[in-house]
Amino acid sequence: MLSSDLLRIRISRGKVMPLFCTSDFGNGTDYELVNKMIVFFTNAQKNKQHKGDLLQKINLLESEYDYKLVRGLLALLERRSIFTRSGSSSTIVAPWSIRQKLFEESSKQGLALSDLQRQSIMQKISNQLHISPDTVETVMWGDKDENLLLTQFDTISPKDLILWYNLSLLQTLLFKCTILEFYVKGGLYWKQVLRDVKRYGLMYNLEYCSEDDSGDDSIKCTLEGPLSLFKMTDRYGTSMAKLLPSIVGTPTWKISGSIAKNTDNGKKIYSFELSNKSTEGFIRSRIESTSNNGGDVLDDVYVYDSTIEAAFAKKFYQHFDPADEFGWKMSREPDPLIADGKAMIPDFLFERFGRKVYFEIVGFWTKEYLERKAAKLKVLFDGHDKGENDKSVDLLVAVNSELACSQIETISKDKIFTFKKEVSIKPILQHLRKIDDDITDEKVADTQIVLDENNLDLISIKQIAQKHAVPEDVTLKILSANYPDRYIVTGSYMISKEKTAIVSDSLAGISKFVEACNVMTSNKIPDSCHADLLSKLEYDVVWNDLDPNNATISKKQ
Fold it and tell me: 219-224 and 177-184: which strand pairing?
């Protein structure tokens, strides 16, 4: 964060926007200024220059560039620098002590109006301190700011300095806010940000908002701004500034709020709004820009909180293929559910065709934690939160059977089940299958499928499903209802009974499996349907060995 006098903003139509530093190349650009200042600091450290000499060079830049921008960048670069006293490192006499002795001796002898008098005083003090006169002259003002030497400088690239400056500028702006609203996307990121909200002692409230308000998300967090408080404004404002990197360090974020500003006509309130899209190229988390891992420190990686969660996820993927376009999808730690204005982030979310089922695993925790967790669950199940959440929440809870918690026992038994060592997938499957039936009925009622009258002998269920963006089971149910008793289903195809009758007649007298396959191929029956169609036509396939050429067919008895 920068000092308030270095805040650069633009006000237009009641809105305030920070004037970010840009990374455009060319003469007179912000990038050129940033690069010059980094070079100045690098050379000053290399040549052990005094701070005063360095500041003289930087002061000249203020006539070419925005004064506040130069001073803001200077403040950040100084934080990466170490200035030390000039003079011999072996000198143990403090500069203020030398000055005191010099002034005392000068007052005794009178003002040193000549070089000879000055040298006499210097010599006397050097004899007292057992150091040379040159050392006395060098050290006496060595602790003054302009005489400090730049001995260490942690260099930084122009791009990273620009991003750091912009983040600091935004932090400075938030110090003047009366209220701040934000959202991030993804339960992993919500958990990280809300953990920091609590760690910094910020007052917050979570609520659902309409899609028109948030655009990409349906949850927002509201923070009381530092200027809305009567006391501890500085400390609270600093805490809010510290939170900002956590928010902007996520892939998808948005902040908005109100800024108080003193004007000639009194204090006025201005609005502001920023997002990851509107600040692309200007803002990045300071943590990310200084990390050495080569990527976002908050990457959405699948690291499970417990072996129980990891084992359950493995079971889930044994029943549901992630590559299935129309199947159930599982995600970890989704966006929060809201209970009494506070967040609850379930362990898992299952989604299919807009239907959401949340799943929470309550394992081994302290009794106090369980009581708080159970209280939130009860609010969600009992519908006490309808003022904030008028959406129905489908939430299942798995509780370790060895836990003792009176609050848990008050939750509806059809939404909760127990486990010992591992969470059973069976209750989840049963619940999802019930929803599957509802989804199928809805899709059947809403989907119209009309077949090509010129190509009714062989229907690819998969192709029809992809064309209408519905699952194959829904497609089969619709076609079976539209064309009753007209087709035989084999694999992922529907073959007309007229076609199968022709195939059946052609199979008369054939005993070799390979010959039967040739008959079906000549009738444009896909290879994947051959064995199934033979079974539907009341044939048995006898495998004498692994060679298909030796296999035979015969009518079932």
Answer: antiparallel
| CB-neighbour burial class of residue 477 (10 A; exposed 0-12, middle 13-18, buried 19+) | middle
Task: Label residue 280 exposed, middle or buried (CB < 10 Å: 0-12, 13-18, 19+).
Answer: exposed
For residues 59-65, average pLDDT: 92
Quick one: tokens of 89? Answer: 């490192």
CB atoms within 10 A of CB 52: 12
Query: Cβ(73)–Cβ(161) under 8 Å?
Result: yes
Find the mean pLDDT for residues 285-310. 48
Are 551 and 513 within 8 A, CB to CB? yes
CA neighbours within 13 Å on the CB side: how many for 299? 9
Q: Strand 416-419 vs strand 219-224: parallel, antiparallel, or unpaired?
A: unpaired
- In this structure, the number of other CB atoms found within 10 A of the CB of residue 51 comes to 19
Distance CA 327, CA 53 (A): 68
Q: What dihedral angle (degrees, nearest 10) is formed by the CA atoms of 440, 442, 445, 448?
A: -70
CA torsion sign for 269, 239, 256, 20 is: positive
Average pLDDT of the chain?
A: 81
- DSSP string of 376-440, one letter each residue: HHHHHHHTTTTTT--S---EEEEEETT---TTGGGS-GGGEEEESSS--SHHHHHHHHHHHHHHH
- Cα–Cα dist 225/175, whole Å: 8
Query: Residue by residue, what is the 3-state secondary structure of 389-404?
Result: CCCCCCEEEEEECCCC
| Longest CA–CA separation in the chain, Å | 137
Amino acid letter, residue 110 = G
pLDDT for 255 beyond 90: yes
The answer on pLDDT for 80 being more than 80 is: yes
Cα(31)–Cα(33) distance, integer angstroms: 5
HSE-CB at 456 with a 13 A cutoff on CA atoms is 13
What letters, b where the CB count within 10 A reaches 16 and e where it falls short, cover 147-182?
A: bbbbeebeebebebbbbbbbbbbbbbbbbbbeebbb
> What mean pLDDT comes out for the span 60-70?
93
Tell how strand 355-362 and strand 395-400 pair up. Answer: parallel
Three-state secondary-structure class, residue 92: coil
Read off the tokens for 170.
């935004």
d(CA 94, CA 139): 8
CB contact at 8 A, 423 and 359 = no
What share of the chain in percent tops pLDDT 90? Answer: 35
- Collapsed DSSP state (helix, strand, coil) of residue 354: coil
